[in-house]
Amino acid sequence: MLKPLAARLLEALLTLWLLATLCFVLLRAAPGGPFDAEKAAPPEVEAALAAQYRLDRPLPAQYALWLGDVVRGDLGPSFQYPDYTVNQLVGQALPVSALNGGLALLLALALGVPLGVLAALRRGRALDRVLMFGAGLGLAVPKFVAAPLLVLLFAVTLKWLPAGGWGEWRHVVLPVIALALPNLAWCARLTRASMLETLSADYLRAARARGLSETRLLFAHALRPGLLPVVAWLAPALINVVTGSAVVEQVFGIPGMGRYFVQGALNRDYTLVLGVVLVVGALIVLIGALVDALRAALDPRLREAR
């Protein structure tokens, strides 16, 4: 038991180290710097800033110092937000992104699973075609198109919800819908395909021949194995939410992780970008482990394979 856990922990730490190292190298290889401006600062000011943020040292020394700070839990100072550390910025932004992303995933599951099951039960009928057409449309429309369309409809035309900002429950509705739409579509299509395969299994035919009702077949025998692919999909769904948050938070002006990542990349705020990458990477690794544990709880064959 302890040996697989230690191996999984070592694999997670190695993944995060490689991710952070690659991001560090790519950021430093990009043209420009964190203190570049249209009007160059006096040389003594540039030298003082470089010394303050340890940019005057060789690149390997900068990497070693930064990695040592990270091991101690210090993500460093922000270059573009001098009154804040990266720890403070991430601490403010993470709950915002977690709320939006969590609600978006819950909405996708709460609607996608029932719609997928309903489409599977009505296979080939008009309702099935309508639901799958809607799911295909949800996959075809990217977030950077869906988000402005939601603003145009519900904020500008109908004036039901605010177009941006943060602080009230009304500010959460449109960003959550924009984040949830593609995941909802994926969830519905995946659930339908999995349920169709499960409902045609031999053991369900035998149970049906014994006179079990369709409702009991569905809830007692088909739903649990039919949802295994949906559980496995949760990890890539989380990645989809994380990558989509950068677009959605920019459109709606939400102070979340995605927005800080975009602003940090544009301003060459090395420590801020690296801090966001590390935190998001750690969350993805953690969610992947939780999804694996949930799959093992639902499927005894996975527990026996360990």
Automatic annotation (TrEMBL):
<dbReference type="InterPro" id="IPR045621">
    <property type="entry name" value="BPD_transp_1_N"/>
</dbReference>
<dbReference type="Pfam" id="PF00528">
    <property type="entry name" value="BPD_transp_1"/>
</dbReference>
<dbReference type="Pfam" id="PF19300">
    <property type="entry name" value="BPD_transp_1_N"/>
</dbReference>
<keyword id="KW-0472">Membrane</keyword>
<feature type="domain" description="ABC transmembrane type-1">
    <location>
        <begin position="94"/>
        <end position="295"/>
    </location>
</feature>
<keyword id="KW-0812">Transmembrane</keyword>
<dbReference type="InterPro" id="IPR000515">
    <property type="entry name" value="MetI-like"/>
</dbReference>
<feature type="transmembrane region" description="Helical">
    <location>
        <begin position="169"/>
        <end position="188"/>
    </location>
</feature>
<protein>
    <submittedName>
        <fullName>Peptide ABC transporter permease</fullName>
    </submittedName>
</protein>
<dbReference type="InterPro" id="IPR035906">
    <property type="entry name" value="MetI-like_sf"/>
</dbReference>
<feature type="transmembrane region" description="Helical">
    <location>
        <begin position="226"/>
        <end position="252"/>
    </location>
</feature>
<keyword id="KW-0813">Transport</keyword>
<comment type="similarity">
    <text>Belongs to the binding-protein-dependent transport system permease family.</text>
</comment>
<dbReference type="GO" id="GO:0005886">
    <property type="term" value="C:plasma membrane"/>
</dbReference>
<keyword id="KW-1133">Transmembrane helix</keyword>
<keyword id="KW-1003">Cell membrane</keyword>
<dbReference type="GO" id="GO:0055085">
    <property type="term" value="P:transmembrane transport"/>
</dbReference>
<feature type="transmembrane region" description="Helical">
    <location>
        <begin position="133"/>
        <end position="157"/>
    </location>
</feature>
<feature type="transmembrane region" description="Helical">
    <location>
        <begin position="103"/>
        <end position="121"/>
    </location>
</feature>
<feature type="transmembrane region" description="Helical">
    <location>
        <begin position="272"/>
        <end position="294"/>
    </location>
</feature>
